[in-house]
Structure formats: structure tokens, C-alpha cells
Amino acid sequence: MRSVVVVGLVASAAAAIAGAMFTTNAQAAQSTIWAGYVATPKTGVFNRIAATWKQPRVSCAQAPAYEATFVGFDGYSGQSLEQAGVYAQCSGSSSTYYAFWDMYQSSAQNPTQSVFQVAPGDTITAIVSYVAPEFVLTVQDKTTGQSFTQDATCAGTCLRNSAEAIVEPLFNVSTQQNFPLANYGSTAFSAISMHDSHGKTGTFTNTNWTTTSLNQVSGGTTLQTVSALNKKTSSAAAGSRFTSTWHHA
Fold first, then answer.
1. CB 224 within 8 A of CB 246
2. Residue 117's CB: how many other CB atoms inside 10 A?
3. Contact 30/216 with Cβ under 8 angstroms?
4. pTM score, two decimals?
5. How many C-beta neighbours within 10 Å does residue 243 have?
6. 137: domain CATH number?
7. Whole-number Å distance between alpha carbons of 102 and 2
8. In this structure, how many other beta carbons lie within 10 angstroms of the beta carbon of residue 159?
9. Residues 239, 78, 17, 115, Cα dihedral to 10°
């Protein structure tokens, strides 16, 4: 499905590369488009990130409005991005949900693709990995059994110097502003894991990389916030879970 949504996903990469998305203070970082967590390696690069969440139902009080949940590489500080996840789209009072993959600086003819439709409440696992010379982008709907895996090569410089789990609105190419962020309530990420090029495996609390939390703030208005990372439990590794919460469109 090619639409303004698809174009918007690519355009968000351009905003990151332009350096307009992130400002840092002593507490954490703020982004004009992202909420979530980002890891940057102290040495080496990332080879894999995965996360699971239950797709929330968005409230379409205004339209158009959009929300995308994904994992990926490079969107934080690199000159590229590689993403896989699900986006929600409000048209009138109705909402639809699509699994997608996205690469900026991809060799693919149409680098952003909506692959299959999902439903609110479905359990989603998204994985982005690098198996030289290709990126492998996967979305699995654990509820319905639908899944896809897309192999794509980088057409430019894809550094893999950040790994992230993110919720974002989409970018309107026509107005050069974000679309309203659809009210998704909250999204609970779980089973987050990363691998780096040194063979290290861990979560956002791994000491081999630096982790930054991101709240989305635009024009002085807080649009999304994220919780603290979880502590270790009998069922979850420390740093493998967090929740993002919608506050404002």
C-alpha cells in the first residue's frame, strides 16, 4: 500500500539526519518525533534488535492521525534507517493497522512497504538484523500466525550505530510537519534484546552500550513519555521492558 503514510515513514528519517529530532538535557533526551529507548554501542556496531508488544487500539478523535511502533537501527544518529513494525492509521472515525518494513538508503525500488493488516490486541514481534551483506527485517503476528521477512541491501552508508524501540507519529511531506499522533493509550514493549558485532547479547541495561530514554516533546507540549526500564524478575531480564504512554496529539 503506497500512500502518504508510507512516504511519511521515509521522511522521518530525513528529519533525524538533519539533526532536528533530538535535544539532550541532564535528565534524558527529548525528541520532536520519537518516544522510546535508544542504545548506542561503546565499540563495534549492532547486528540485531528484537521486541514484542500487544498492538493497541487507537482512538480516532481526529483524522488524519497516525502512530507507528517499531524496532530498528540508525535512526537516532546515523545517515540511514532500517525499521520493522506496525503503524496505525485514522481515516475519519475508523482505524486500520499494517505491518511494515522501511529502509532509508535501501536498494529496493520502493523502500517502504506495508505488508499485511493486523488487528488491535494482536501480539507483534519485530526483528531487524544484519547478516552480511543484507539487512533482514521481520514482523510476526503471533496471534494470527501471519509474518514476513524482507531482505534488503544498503544503497549508501548504513552504520548500525544505534538500536532503538520506538513509537512515533508520521511526517507529512506536504506540510513538512508531523501528522497528529493517534491516541494509542499505551504500548508495553517486552522481550527486548540486542546483539552487537562483538558477540555481546543483552537489553537496554547492558553495560557494553549507552542507553538513552526519549520523551516526545514538540513546541513545549509533551506528546509521549516512557517509563523507566524494568528491573530483573523471574520472567524478564532487566532492561527488557518499558511502556510508552500517549499524552497529546
1. yes
2. 15
3. yes
4. 0.89
5. 15
6. 2.60.120.700
7. 12
8. 14
9. -70
Number of domain units in the chain: 1
Per-residue pLDDT of the chain (249 residues; tens, 9 = 90+): 223 333 334 434 444 433 335 554 434 799 999 999 999 999 999 999 999 999 999 999 988 999 999 999 998 876 788 999 999 999 989 999 999 999 886 555 444 578 899 999 999 999 999 999 999 999 999 999 999 999 999 888 899 999 999 999 988 878 888 899 999 999 999 999 999 999 999 999 999 999 999 999 999 999 999 999 999 999 999 999 999 999 999
Q: Give the chain's length.
A: 249
Q: Are 141 and 123 in contact (CB under 8 A)?
A: yes
- The alpha carbon torsion through 182, 185, 188, 189 (nearest 10 deg) reads 10
Distance CA 154, CA 146 (A): 26
Q: Please give the Cα distance from 119 to 113 (Å, whole number).
A: 18
| Residue where the block lists cell 547486528 | 47
d(CA 134, CA 101): 14
Range of the domain at 66: 4-198+207-246
